[in-house]
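Lecture 7 notes: from sequence to structure.

We start with a single chain of 59 residues. Read the sequence below before looking at the structure.
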Amino acid sequence: MMNMISKLIRDESGAAAIEYGLIAGLIAVVIIAGATTLGGTLNTLFTTVATTLTGVGAP
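Now the structure, written as tokens:
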């Protein structure tokens, strides 16, 4: 019984899974932040292009 408890205490496989989960969560936050920033930048760029092209080629 005591041997089984000591094996259970020394088992760190659950800790590794939690660490991998935290790393994956952090990567997801970075990707979301980057996509949000890039999306805003692209929106500004396309708005500028659309404004510049308004009236171009009109007879």
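Residues 13-53 form the longest helix (41 residues). Keep this in mind for problem set 3.
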